[in-house]
Amino acid sequence: MNTSTPWRGLWRLSLLILALVVSLGLAQTALAQADPGREAAIAVPALDADVWRQVKNGETGPNYRDSRFDSNYNLINASGETWRQLRDRWVSPFGVIVILGMIAVIGLFYLVFGSKKLDEPRTGRKLLRWSLVIRSLHWTVASLFILLALTGLNLAYGKAIFRPLFGDGFWAAMMSGTKLIHNYLGPLFGILLVILLLRLLAHNIPRKHDLAWFAKGGGLIGKGHPDAGFANAGEKLWYWLLATAGIAVIVSGLVLDFPNYGQGRDTMQWANIIHAVGAFGLTAVALGHIYIGTLGTEASFEAMATGYVDESWAKEHHNLWYEDVKDQAVPEEQLAATRPHSRGEEPTPRSG
């Protein structure tokens, strides 16, 4: 009789139990990875009211601390929840309201007033308004602005719109490209915008007649056109929005773009809020700027497309500037023959 048989059976049973335990552990891990809720339940103990109180008061132990060097933050922190509430309850709805609201206002305005036509026929005599350098800067900054606005809106709302429509794979690839474009073009936009603002500063100093321009709604209220120099009051308002809110968006974007300069989590959270609010607001106002410069006002687009404007347009929309430069008007035929704008001469207007 072989007495080792029971021991062999016991050994096999032990191996079977061990294999069963290991397989159960692997199955549990797989389930946790498939279900974020189960993963959280396995990774950390239950978070009851006492734990949340400790987190809020900073009383938690090392298990709830950030492992980064010289950090005093909790891995579960109240400031992060405050930022999330601000973003979800206020900032994201604000973006939808101002942008869609501006689109609705522009559509209604166009239906009621239509495109603003010139009161007098064109004379065929042209005045140089924008040099080639300024136009190149403008179109580069404008193109970058549109790209950043589109990618920024995708970062803010793309998950809610495109992920359900196209699935995780498409959405993940789109977001990866979106972040790459937004993060790398942002600093370039900031540099070029500052250069453009400096070049246009002299034309955008506020004057007394700007108040009258606002009082007449840019010519929509009452009869006649309000006085305006090289830049009217509406254009100056857009300039100073870019020079204030635009700079705030640029600086906050750089804080987010380069997190390796020691800024804390609270700084990053506030930079995110400032960046989003400023960008949403500027995008909404930019829609109005685009409308006025294209469909909204006859011949306005020609100024930034060719650099030249007709005398009738200049007299009607920028009469003070026109009085300063009217002796520089060139017949359209002569301009077409000589094409002086190809050499990029600077205009010599005064701001009136």
TrEMBL record:
Record localization: Cell membrane
GO CC, any one term: plasma membrane
GO biological process, one term: respiratory electron transport chain
Protein name: Formate dehydrogenase subunit gamma
The keyword Cell membrane is assigned to this record: yes
UniProt keywords, alphabetically: Cell membrane, Electron transport, Heme, Iron, Membrane, Metal-binding, Signal, Transmembrane, Transmembrane helix, Transport
Organism of provenance: Halomonas fontilapidosi
Cofactor(s), by name: heme
Biased composition, class Basic and acidic residues, residue ranges: 342-352
GO molecular function: electron transfer activity; formate dehydrogenase (NAD+) activity; formate dehydrogenase (quinone) activity; metal ion binding
